[in-house]
Design goal:
CATH topology of the largest domain: Tetrahydropterin Synthase, Chain A
Distance between the termini: 121 Å
Strand content: 15-25%
Strand order of the largest sheet: 1-2-3
Family: Belongs to the FliL family.
Subcellular location: Cell inner membrane; Cell membrane
GO cellular component, one term: bacterial-type flagellum basal body
Transmembrane segments: 22-44
Order of helices and strands: HEEHHHE
Pfam family, one: FliL
CATH architecture of the largest domain: 2-Layer Sandwich
Largest sheet: 3 strands, antiparallel
Shape: elongated
Number of helices: 4
Number of strands: 3
CATH class of the largest domain: Alpha Beta
Number of domains: 2
Length: 168
């Protein structure tokens, strides 16, 4: 009888140890499943946001409408320090809305004034390379959009292009 009681106690100990191992394994599997589910949620959720952002960009492009190119007539003519001492630049700009095009036409004198001020600070030697001309384009675009913002324009200028560039 003593043997039977001892073996029953051993069986109960093994059952308790087996049950606790089973509980630990189930807990680990549950944690892994939850972690995997959360990882999948966050990874797949990012694609949805990217898709929403792409759709928003497409909608903005559709709202822009067709590009309109406006020429500044007559070309800009500026005296520069040093040699060459005269600069003549034909300029066109690109906008995407009729209200913005009308705003540019209406404020032409103010815009020309600011662009002439910018051009008069340049010297001929520094404008001979392609990189310098591209940098001047970027400066002019920034100055133009600054004026548009100050005058509370209905948008901004998308691009500025040189249609002629003469230095003498």
């Amino acid at each position: 009888m003593a043997n039977e009681e001892a073996s029953e106690e051993l069986d109960l100990g093994e059952e308790k140890s087996g049950k606790s191992k089973l509980i630990i394994i189930i807990a680990i599997v549950a944690v892994l499943l939850i972690g995997g589910g959360l990882a999948a949620f966050f990874l797949l959720g990012g694609e949805e946001e990217a898709t929403e952002e792409a759709a928003a960009e497409e909608q903005v492009e559709e709202e822009k409408g067709p590009a309109q190119y406006l020429d500044f007539k007559p070309p800009f003519v500026v005296n520069m320090p040093g040699r060459p001492s005269l600069l003549q630049i034909g300029v066109s700009i690109r906008v995407y809305s009729e209200p913005m095009a009308e705003f540019i036409r209406h404020n032409d004198p103010m815009i020309r004034h600011h662009l002439l001020d910018l051009l008069s600070t340049k010297d001929g030697k520094s404008l001979k390379t392609r990189e310098a001309k591209e940098a001047l384009q970027a400066e002019m675009l920034e100055a133009l959009n600054k004026v548009v913002k100050e005058l509370e324009g209905p948008g901004e200028v998308d691009g500025i292009f040189f249609t002629s560039f003469v230095m003498q």
